[in-house]
Amino acid sequence: MEKGLRRRPLAQGTTGAAIKSPQANMNNRRIVSSNYYFNAQSLMVLICLTASLLFLPLILPPLPPPPLMLLVLPIGIFLVLLILAFMPSDVRNIASSYL
């Protein structure tokens, strides 16, 4: 992993700018930009969201259970997706003709 970061000795009469390629500059930018995955604003949003998930259940009163008809909807969606997942398919009918 360290092999790509080693510097080569400069030949006589050449400058460092003449040896650097555009691809090397792109690699340097990619390394620098990957160090900062979250900026300050997104980090604050994540911290506030985490705090609300931790403290709001302790403060708010418990909710009554939902009506039975509202529980049928997600179970129905789950069953339809389960049936579609295990349904055999013919790949020749799925593949498009222009490929």
From TrEMBL:
It is found in: Cytoplasm; Endoplasmic reticulum; Membrane; Nucleus. It is a multi-pass membrane protein. It comes from the Eukaryota. Keywords: Cytoplasm, Developmental protein, Endoplasmic reticulum, Membrane, Nucleus, Transmembrane, Transmembrane helix. Its main location: cytoplasm. One of its GO terms (cellular component) is membrane. The chain crosses the membrane at residues 36-56, 68-87. GO terms for biological process: response to hormone. InterPro entries: ARGOS/ARL/OSR1 (IPR037468). Belongs to the plant organ size related (OSR) protein family. This is ARGOS-like protein. It comes from Dendrobium thyrsiflorum. The lineage of its organism: Eukaryota, Viridiplantae, Streptophyta, Embryophyta, Tracheophyta.
